[in-house]
Specification:
alpha/beta; 8 helices
């Protein structure tokens, strides 16, 4: 497993490496946006996780995050001294998967990293691709059909062929074969967490899912280490992509209960 650490404080970078070392992990340590971007170009496809500081000598972690998210959905954990909520929201909105404010507990860092890597592996086994910018997987009603078959469940859902399963709901297309998400013909990037959340919503279409259940399903036993604001940001980010920023249409907030995908 490969982890990229982008942190200009060399002592902290070394400390993170020591904390996470398990004999099976190789670390790629970069100290500037430029070096991180150059390194990502060379070995980005091998990474299981990026640990990213926001304040860097030649720019910000947001600059590098934008570069990464244009090419990959590899999990990104932000480490920063910025404890303002707006900074956290900005990072999550731009595609970070988690956020940890300095100073932090090494035990919590280890738990967050393990959770992100584990979720990424589970997503990969479930059909998600960590290296495909537009990737998502979707099993509407657990469809199993031969070439040319079609079904209808809460909207138009069709399978065009057996080798490249394509599901359609309104103006959205979920290609289970190519692992792409499109709305109005335009491919849209989904982070790993957004992919998992969308899949969970679609598997429970029409049912209300509580925040507690979503936290448990998305983060498992490590959900206790995750701020609930992370879930809110992820839901809002997914909603803006699914509904095109036109307000709640498919993903509805059921006040006092949770969320529902219609």
């Amino acid at each position: 497993m490969y982890i990229q650490i982008v942190e200009d404080d060399k002592a902290l970078s070394d400390g993170i490496e020591i904390t996470l070392s398990d004999g099976n992990t190789e670390f790629k340590k970069e100290y500037t946006v430029k070096d991180a971007a150059s390194g990502f170009k060379d070995y980005g496809g091998t990474l299981s996780l990026i640990i990213l500081d926001i304040n860097l000598p030649d720019g910000t972690g947001y600059d590098y995050l934008k570069i990464v998210r244009a090419q990959s959905s590899v999990p990104v954990l932000i480490l920063t001294a910025n404890d303002m909520e707006l900074d956290e929201v900005k990072g999550l909105t731009m595609g970070a998967d988690d956020y940890l404010t300095k100073p932090f507990s090494l035990a919590v860092l280890r738990a967050r990293v393990n959770a992100l890597v584990r979720r990424s592996r589970v997503s990969a086994m479930a059909g998600f691709s960590a290296d495909s910018p537009g990737s998502t997987a979707f099993a509407a009603g657990r469809v199993s059909a031969a070439a040319g078959a079609s079904v209808s469940q809460g909207g138009a859902t069709s399978v065009e062929n057996s080798s490249s399963l394509i599901y359609k709901i309104d103006d959205m297309v979920f290609d289970f074969g190519k692992l792409t998400f499109k709305r109005n013909g335009e491919e849209i990037f989904l982070s790993v967490n957004e992919q998992r959340l969308l899949k969970l919503f679609l598997e429970n279409k029409g049912c209300v899912l509580t925040r507690e259940r979503l936290m448990e399903r998305l983060w498992g036993e490590d959900g206790t280490f995750v701020d609930e604001n992370t879930l809110s940001v992820t839901i809002n980010r997914l909603r803006s992509k699914v509904d095109g920023g036109k307000g709640a249409k498919h993903i509805s907030t059921i006040y006092g209960q949770g969320y529902r995908f219609d």
